[in-house]
Specification:
35% helix, eight-stranded mixed beta sheet, Aminopeptidase, alpha/beta, single chain, Alpha-Beta Plaits, 2 domains
């Protein structure tokens, strides 16, 4: 097997940058990635691969096989965000109100380049499944692909995903043996009082006062009912009540999210919220109801797979390149569904350099093309590492 330190051909990287900028210029929202998926499938077929389309809506999977060996999945997300791009780059979005502000154009191009590289070198044994996923941002495209038979149709021993990460210097990588990103659940709290004239509050029951109390009280669940060693975030992000200056409304609504890094903490927070909403409003004569909707689970790496990522990264990027078990993010990622269904790991590839330091989901963001050769080497190195482990056991 070739060393993962071997550089991919310059012509391949040049092509991948061109693909990336084309994807950036024509972004598509979740489950609308028709052009993107069509272009991905065309390229994969031109590499001589068996290609399957329409998985989980607009998802694409390509399989590359080279005799007996491990079955490895590599995933990239394809969807863009409903944002207006404000940058002045030559390849800026041509679609009003839609842009690649999270780097999925880059992830897709890295995986395409990896697919072509491995198809040309054959430097592996077993099977590789290249997974191009729709609707990561809000549509749970990973779950949709799984429900559509992803792991039954394409059995995998391990699955890997990467994400570019502003805030970490270019040439560094973070991977954890446990949680990388938080779960995200959504809630609606409805408070039922009794409307009245604002000049006569004693003749009604004001749900707005209770809503204000509840926003503050919910923070006490994190600070006083959970261990300081169990991270959780409860954010009330919308308060809706009333429509007139001189009317106390009869209903108030709170909306928000809960984010946790452990499934047990996630369930405990839900129980504590239900308890509070059943009791606190009653002290004011108000009735409260909770509609709690589970969303993306914790992005939880398999320790063995995370260790392999770290080992490969040290070979590719250097001995001091790996941030091991550093603080995870309280943001979410629907690759978590794949990690619930299959062993694997998700890792961040640092994106910051002098020319690139814009955060994700910013209207001036553009993917750092300097990540493409690094991503190809890391994905290739992971495949090679599994092949070498398999061959050593025979």
């Amino acid at each position: 097997m070739n060393s993962p330190n071997a550089l991919p051909p310059l012509s391949l990287i040049t092509d991948a940058i061109a693909w990336r900028r084309d994807f950036h210029a024509f972004p598509e929202l979740g489950y609308q990635e028709e052009r993107t998926a069509r272009r991905v499938a065309e390229l994969l077929m031109s590499f001589g691969m068996e290609v399957f389309v329409g998985i989980g809506g607009t998802g694409v999977v390509a399989t590359l096989e080279n005799g007996p060996g491990p079955s490895i999945g590599l995933r990239a997300d394809m969807d863009a965000l409903p944002m207006q791009e404000k940058g002045e780059i030559a390849h800026r979005s041509s679609h009003i109100g839609c842009m690649h502000a999270c780097g999925h154009d880059g992830h897709t191009s890295i995986l395409l380049a990896t697919a072509r590289h491995l198809s040309e070198t054959g430097d592996f044994v077993g099977k590789i499944h290249f997974i191009f996923q729709p609707a990561e941002e809000t549509g749970a495209g990973a779950r949709k692909m799984i429900e559509d038979g992803l792991f039954e149709r394409f059995p995998m021993d391990y699955v890997y995903g990467l994400h570019n990460w502003p805030g970490i210097p270019l040439g560094q990588l973070q991977v954890n043996p446990g949680a990388m990103m938080a779960s995200q659940d959504m809630f609606d709290i409805t408070l039922y009082g009794k409307g009245c004239h604002a000049a006569m509050p004693d003749r009604g029951i004001d749900p707005v006062v209770v809503a204000c109390q509840l926003v503050t009280a919910l923070q006490s669940l994190v600070s006083r009912r959970l261990s300081p060693l169990d991270p959780a975030v409860i954010s009330v992000t919308a308060v809706e009540a009333g429509s007139a200056y001189n009317v106390i409304p009869d209903v108030a609504l709170l909306k928000g999210t809960v984010r946790c890094l452990q499934p047990s903490v996630r369930e405990h927070v839900r129980e504590l919220m239900a308890e509070m909403i059943n009791h606190l409003p009653q002290a004011f004569g108000v009735t409260g109801t909770l509609d709690y909707r589970p969303g993306y689970p914790v992005t939880q790496n398999t320790p063995e797979a995370a260790t392999r990522v770290a080992q490969v990264a040290r070979q590719v990027l250097g001995e001091d390149s790996v941030r091991w078990n550093a603080p995870p993010s309280m943001a979410t990622e629907d690759f978590s569904y794949m990690l619930e269904a299959c062993p694997g790991a998700y890792f961040w590839l640092g994106a910051d350099c002098e020319q690139h330091s814009t955060p994700l989901h910013n209207p001036h963001y553009d993917f750092n093309d300097g990540l493409i050769p690094l991503g190809v080497r890391l994905f290739t190195g992971l495949v090679t590492s599994h092949s070498e482990s398999y061959s050593a056991k025979r």
